[in-house]
Amino acid sequence: MATLSMADAAAFLPSSRAPHSLCEMDAIYQSVPHSSHRCKIAMRASADAPLCVEAVIADSPDGNPLKNGWSTRTNRLERGEKRLGHDVTSARGWLEHLEQECGAGAYTVLRCDVLCDGNERSWRVWGLELHLDRLCSSYGALREIADWEQCGFEEEAKAQTNDIITTLLRGAELAMRDNAEASADESTAQDAEGEEIARTLMLTVLWTPPATGNKRSIAKPTIRGHAAFIGGASPAQNGPEDAMPAPTAACLGIPIDPTPEALASLPRRYSGETREKPGPSAKISSWCRERRPLEDPSRFKPPGSGVGEVLLVRQCKAPNNDEDGGFLDALEILEGLTSNLFVIYKDGTVRTAPAEKVLSGYARQLVMDELS
């Protein structure tokens, strides 16, 4: 795929269309830790926010061995709960709080769809293997691990991650089952229309390094998970035309002062020859905090502008200051703050940034597989 130049940018100028937004969570989670990961959830009735929980892997206590040598501990997240000033009922606030408390870690976000047909529920977890592999590679880049075989904990870390995912999915399913009668989204739609109802759960998994030891130590990570539904219940999608999201307007992450020095002062994940570690292919939780200057409402996302994404750019050649637009012509477009970017031309050509310059997400992989 060819690199995107500023000539491709016209399609990404801000417009008046509102971006597709995600509803924040509004829930109470209650649980009793158990080695089989059973949990009980009490939920405040809400049409758009029925669950928000976290879970963490804990080593089994001495003298009380558990299956596989570890247990999954679930924690209650109260409505609007704050820790160190962060709203931990949102995945981003949860990640920023943990960075402040434990340091940066490797993370990934999985989309999990549940199909509700009467009392029957089935889950689809998208791209699980890709997410597990990316957790390993991101954590390895963060800790500068050159040889995973030498570490000896890759399979255990993946198994613990699967336990975290299973715990949170079971909790979500129990929440929907226990509150079906109180949920206007689910029960009303099913009783009135008899349709299958779909819901989407966003599940965040975080691997944080040990609090002690040097950066190159190969100690196994602490593994945590956070789950939150987005939006409300909706009829199950039947075809590609039903799956089209609402358009999201985007703008370019360009400084007010169009100079290379000003551009270098903005947050970035890739800078060319002086490439930062651990690099753009690693998904590191500190990016949630670092990218905030590019979300400044006074500059990049002004209220009412409809801008829902900011596209990262980098200087790929020396600007020609003798020409109008010389600075812009010296830039290339890489990716969004939380998304990958593809440009489709009228002749059917598709262009995107090279994989070594961006974070290759699951959706990007699906598009690349389809194109190939």
Please give the structural blueprint.
Blueprint: E1 4-5, E2 52-59, E3 70-76, E4 82-83, E5 86-87, H1 91-102, E6 106-117, E7 120-125, H2 128-143, H3 148-151, H4 154-178, H5 184-193, E8 197-208, E9 222-235, E10 249-252, H6 260-264, H7 287-290, E11 307-315, H8 326-329, E12 331-336, E13 343-344, E14 350-351, H9 362-371
Parallel strand pairs: 10-11
Antiparallel strand pairs: 1-12, 2-3, 2-9, 4-5, 6-7, 6-8, 8-9, 11-12, 13-14
Order of helices and strands: EEEEEHEEHHHHEEEHHEHEEEH
N-to-C CA distance? 11 Å
Give the % helix.
Answer: 10-25%
Largest sheet: 6 strands, antiparallel
**Strand order in space, largest sheet:** 3-2-9-8-6-7
Commentary on this structure:
The protein has 372 residues and is α+β, with helices and mostly antiparallel strands. 24% of the residues lie in helices and 24% in strands. It is built from 9 helices and 14 strands. It has helices at residues 91-102, 128-143, 148-151, 154-178, 184-193, 260-264, 287-290, 326-329, 362-371; strands at 4-5, 52-59, 70-76, 82-83, 86-87, 106-117, 120-125, 197-208, 222-235, 249-252, 307-315, 331-336, 343-344, 350-351. The strands form 4 sheets. It has a 6-stranded antiparallel β-sheet. Strands 1-12-11-10 form a 4-stranded mixed β-sheet. Strand 4 and strand 5 form a beta hairpin. The longest helix is centred in the middle third of the chain and has 25 residues, at 154-178. The radius of gyration is 22 Å and the shape is globular. Mean pLDDT is 74; it is low at 1-50, 62-66 and 184-192.
